[in-house]
Write the C-alpha cells for this entry.
Amino acid sequence: MRLLQQAAFGPTAALDQRIRRIGLRVWLEEQFQAQYPSASNPYPDLPLKPTNAPADCDNNTTVPDVPATCFRDTYTMYPLQAWFFKEAYYGEAQLKHRVSWALSQIWVVSGVDTQQSRFMTEYYKILANNAFGNYRTLMQQMTLNPAMGNYLDMVRSTRTAPNENYPRELKQLFSIGLFELNQDGTVRCVENNPCQPGDTPAATYDQNVVNNFTKVMTGWNFCNQTASCPNIAVGTVNYIDPMLLNAGVTTVGNNRHDLTAKTLLNYPGSTTTNIAACTNCTTLPNIATYANNSLNQALDNVFNHPTLGPYVSKVLIQHLVTSDPTPAYVSRVAAAFNNNGSGVRGDMKAVITAILLDPEARGDAKTDPNFGKLREPVQLTTNLARTFDVTAASGTGQSDGVFNGPTNNLLTNMAQSVFYSPTVFNYYAPDYKIPGTTMLGPEFSLMTTGTAVARANFMNTMVVNNGVAVSSPNVPLGTRLNLSELQALSAADPTGGQLLDALNYKMLNGTMSAQMRSTILTAVTSITQSATPTATQTLDRAKQAVYLVATSSQYQIQR
Amino acid sequence: MKESRREFLKKSGGCALGMVGLATQMHHMGMMSALAQKTIDESPQGGETDYKALVLIFWSGGNDGNNAVIPNHSDATISNYATYAALRSNLAVAQASLLPISVPRMGGLTYGLHPSFGPVAGQPNNGIHELWASGKLAIVPNCGTLVRPTTKAQMSQSSHPKPYQLYSHSDQVAQYQTSISNTQVFTGWGGRLADQMNLTRNPNGLVPMVTSIAGAQLFTSGQTTLPMAINDSNTSLANVLNPTFSGTGATARRTAWNSLRGIDLASNYIREASEVTDIAMAANTALQTSQDTTVTFPNTGLGRQLRQIARLIKTRTTLNVNRQVFYCQMGGFDTHNGQIVNQANLFTQYSQAVRAFYDEMTAQSIQNNVTTFTLSDFGRTMNPAAAGTADVGSDHAWGNNMFVIGGSVLGGDFYGMNTVVNQTPFPQYVMGGADDADSGTGARGRWIPTTSVDQYAATLAKWFGLPQDAGTLASVFPNLANFPTTNLGFLP
C-alpha cells in the first residue's frame, strides 16, 4: 500500500493484489512500458486559438460563445485539469503520471501566464515523454518548448535585448540549484567540506555565468516557417512545434543570436567551458548551426555538472517518498543518476527504480519520526478517490475528474490549483523547513491554519455530503466515493472493528495506533446500528470512520 | 522537544485554552521560548494595553521602482527627467502625467509619482498621492539587500561580503523577508519580531501575533512562532477557520476529530500537521464575534486582503492582542514584458487598496497605530528589456523604492542613506556609473542599494516596540550592526 502512495496516485484493491502476486520489480517493468495516457483518456485534443479571444469564444455574452464552454475549454486549464484527474483516478500508467506530475513541479510552467490549455498540453507531453527517458533530452526539449519560452521569456530574448530569466532558472530550479552539492546532497562550502558553522556555501554559478548562458540562449522564437513547423495554423501563435532560431528573420543583418564568445560553467571534470565566437556566421543557416551547437554545448555543460545528480535525485525523492531523506539515500539515488550501471548518465528509469526500491522507501512500518511527507492536496484528493473506487455522482461510470471551475475549486481552497502554480517556484520550495524545526517539509508551506480547515471541509464534502454533485456546465458527471464494501463490513461487525481494520489497511498501511482506533470507534458506535442494519445506518457509520481517518493528521502524512 | 513540551503542559495545568492539542499550540504561540519566558518574568504587568500593527504589502515579482518614483525636475546637477527619459526609452512615463511631490530631502526639488497613484476613473478613492502632502506617506529610495554598506569599488572585491544570488527571485525574496543576506535562514523578521514580543505584548492573545492573508511565507515564520493564515474578505472572519460537520453523528465526529490531534505525535510530521490545526481551532473560537469594515474597499486581491486585516484590527479587543504583524501580497510585478499596461494596473490596485485601508483605519480612529509598508523581490534594470512599445519591460536588478504609509509616519519626504555620488538618497542615473552594480558597455542600471532592508525593517520594528538593547536587536536583525544607523527616522 505504501508503494501505491509513492509510485501511484494511491492504492486500489485490484492493483494492491496484483502487485502482491507479480512482485514489485515486475510491476515497475510493466509500468515502464505502459501506454500513456490511457487509451480511454487521451490528451485533450483542442485546436490552437488566436491569442485575442474571438467574440464567439471570449466569455462575453454580447456575442454568444459557440459552444457555450468555448472560453473555458480554450483559454483556461480546465480541460487539462479534468484529464489529469481522470488519468490519476483510472489510468493504468500510474507511475508515469506520478513522475510527470513531479517533473511538472520542477520544470514549472503555469496557467497563470500560459493562455491556452493547448499550449500547456504540449509542454506536459514533454514531461511525460521523458519521465522514463534521459534527463538531458528533457533539458533539450524543455528549453525549446514554446510555452516555457513564453513563460520564462526566452522567446523574447535577443542579441540586443537579452533576457536572463530562463538561463537563470534553468540552473537554479531545473538542474543544479544554487550551491554545489556532494553526491549525498549535502552542501559544499568554500572553506570546508563538510561545512563547518560559519562557512560560506559554494555557489554553483554567479551573475557572469548567467550573462554568458543568456547570450547562448538569444534569438529563438515561435516557429513560423512552414518547412520546419508542421503545426502552423493561420491566425494563431505556434505553441506546438519547438522554437526556431531567428524565426521570421530574413537577412543576416537582422540576426537575433549573440555571436560573441561565451564562458560556461567551470567545475572539476568540466570539458567544454568556452564557446568561441562564430567565425562563419555570414548566412542564416550558418548562424542557426552555430546557435544550436552552442545550445547543445551549454546544456551538456550543465548536464555534466556533478551537482545535477544529487540535486535532481533529492527533489524527486521528496516528491515521491519522503521530505527529508537521509544523505545516504540521496547518495544511492544520485549514484544511479550518475551511472545507470551501463555507463549512462541521467537515465530516469534507473533513478526512479533506485528511489522506489531503496531500503528507506521499502521495508516494514516506518517508525523514524522524520520519515514521510505531507500529502499535497493533489495526493490527498486522488489517494482518497482511488482508495474508495471513485465514480460519477450517480454511483456508476467514471467521474468527470473536476472539482468545479478551473481556478475556483476545492483544490484552490487547499492552495494547489492544478496547472496554476503561483510562480516558477512551484506551489512549494524543496528547501522549505517547517517553522520552529530543522526538518525539511516542502508541502508544509501549503499547510496553514486556513488550508488545514479547508482539508477537513474537503473531506466533509467528499465523504459526508456524498461528493461533488453534478452542476452544469463545469461538473457534468460529478464525483462520488463508493463506500459499499465498508458498509458490508459495518453490517457484519456491530463493534466497528472490521470497518476500522479495513481503513487501517487501505489508508494507513497498518500504522493505526490503539488510541486512534478507540477514539474513532467511539464516534462510529455513537451512531445506532440495528440488529438488522439499514443501509443508512451502515453508510453513516462508514462515513464517520472514513471522515475521521481522512482528516486525521496521521492520514495527512504519507508514510 | 516533545518531552519538554509535555513537561511544560503539566506545570501549566493545561486548561486555559481548553483544547486537546494544547501542547503543540503552546509551542508555536511562543510559550516554550526560554527567551520569552525570561522576558515575561521581567515585565511588570506581563503586557500592555496599547495597540500597534505593522502591515507588509509584498510586491511579488520585483517591482520596477524606477517607474514608481521619477525625477520631475530639470536640475542639471543630478539625475532629472531628461536623464530618466533618455535611459528608459519607450518604458518612460510621460512627464505631463506625473503626480508631483516636493521633496525636502532633495532640496525641495519636485519628483513625480506614477499617475496610477492618484485618482483613476472608476475607482473608489483618490489614491495615495494625497497622503504625501498630508505627511502620511514616506518613501525610502534605493533600499535593498545588503550584508554591509557597499560601494561600486567593493562590488569587485571578493573579500567584501555581498548578498548571495543577487537578481534571483527566490533568494532575494528570502533576503527581504529574513533581513539576512549573507546566508540562508528559515525564519523571517516578522516571525522573529513575534518571537521576541509575543509574551510581553500579547500574553493572553487568542490568535497568533502574525497573520498572513497570503498563505505561509518566510517573513511570518519564527523560531517558535507559527502564523495564522486565512483567506481574504470574501470569507467572513466567523467562517474563515470554521470546519463544517454535517450529517448524522456530527457531534461525536467533532469530538473525535479534536481528540485525534493529540495522538501519535511521536512522528514529527504528524505532530506538525496537528499543531497547525490546533492553532486554527483556537483562533476559530475567538473569531466567532468579529466586526466588519465601513469604508468601501476595491474588490481586488489586495483590496480583499487589506479589508480582512481591517476586520481583524477592528476585532482586536476581542482577540486580546496588542501587537499584530500582517502579511499580504500582490503578484504580477515580474514585468519582463508588457510592463507599461500591467504595472499601471498593479499600481492602481495598490494605491486604491492602501488608501481604502488608511481611510478605514481613520474611521476606526486607529490610523496612528497602524503602518503599512512595502517590500519586493528587487528593483529592475533601468535599461529596458525587449523591444517594441507593447512588449517593453525590464529585468531583475537590485535597489528599489519602498513606500511607508500611516498616521504616525513622518511623511512627505525621502528617507535613507546617501548615495556615493550625489549625497542624496536617490541614485544617480548613469549606466555603469558609481551607483550601478553593472560596468562597461552592457551595463543595465542595477542600483547598488544605499539603504539596507535591515535598516528599513529595524526602523519599523523600533516603532512597533521592539526592545532596543543590542542583544534583542541582534536576535531579530543580526546584520544591523554592520550599518551606520539603525533608525532611518520615518517613524517616531
Observations:
- Chain A touches chain B through 78 residues (CB under 8 Å).
- The mean pLDDT of chain A is 95.
